[in-house]
Amino acid sequence: MKRIFKTAALVLAVLFSLLLAAGCGQDQNSAKKVSLLFPDPAAGGPWKNVGPLCQKYVSEAGYDCTMEFCSSPQNQVEQLKAAIAQKPACIVLAVQDAMIFGDALKEATEANIPVIAYDRLVMHTDAITYYASFDNSAVGEFMGRYVEEKLNLKSGAGPFTLEFVAGDPSDMNAPMFYQGAYDKLKPYIDKGQLVIPSGQAAFKDVATDGWSADKAKARMETILRQHYAGRNLDLVVAANDDLANAVLEAQKSVGYNGLPTLLTGQDASDKALQNIREGRQAMTIYKDPNVLCAKVVRMVKAVVEGSQPAINDVQNIKNDVKTIPSYLCIPAIVDKENIDVVKK
Hints:
The protein is an alpha/beta fold. It has helices at 2-26, 47-60, 73-85, 102-110, 136-150, 173-190, 203-206, 213-227, 241-253, 270-277, 289-305, and strands spanning 33-38, 64-69, 90-93, 115-118, 128-134, 160-165, 194-195, 235-238, 262-263, 283-286, 326-329, 332-335.
């Protein structure tokens, strides 16, 4: 009889342990930490809204997700080191300065922690496992294509005056935006259909440190005073919506009458959408954060489980050390005709 009781007790103990294991299996991701490190929302761009959205997606996938916004690039390096010390299953890193993380990321490599670069490619390191973003060359190309169509350039229209306002040189997306637009418009510059009165066409001359709207405004004020007395400014290819609005503010501050025939932008910010409705900005590029966040979650799940995520570019994304397997989402052109596609 005692043996029967002992056997029954043993069976019950085994069943109880199996039930506990099954319960843990249903929520096995929750014990796996994922660290999200994002730029300072005050530095411009969509980070204030995108960060919490990404955290929501990762948390809903069942991971123990922490979210950090930095106050400066160096602060973000410190946050990265602190995150590595916690030994998460994965780090999602959206850098404020793409150039300064090489040394800190060595610690992630040594700890076998996969790192996914979110939207901004991290340079000078082999520690980046995957990269998820939008096709940033296409962003600029879409701007150029929009200009080409709206100004009827293929039919020989012009000449039109043109100025570029590009983004931050430390953000590797910025030259991609610029080059995509410039390459599309260069044939019309060469033909004289597009004229740049300031003479500032190279990326180094039109870049805006820190994506600073104040710096873009000051530069545009100088250009307007020096080159547009009695002349219309027909076209400004601005790399994002903050810079586009800075152009409008510069025109106002120097007493420039009228608006550019075309002003581009990117990010589909609330201010840009208002400017588009009021006819002050022609278009913006919409990069739906839900699309990118959903892709990043699938990447996180794959690397945590040790499998291969879906990628669509294995050749073109290079960070000076290696080619990064990437997934590039497709952005959308938004103007007054289809402005309702932007969901806030």
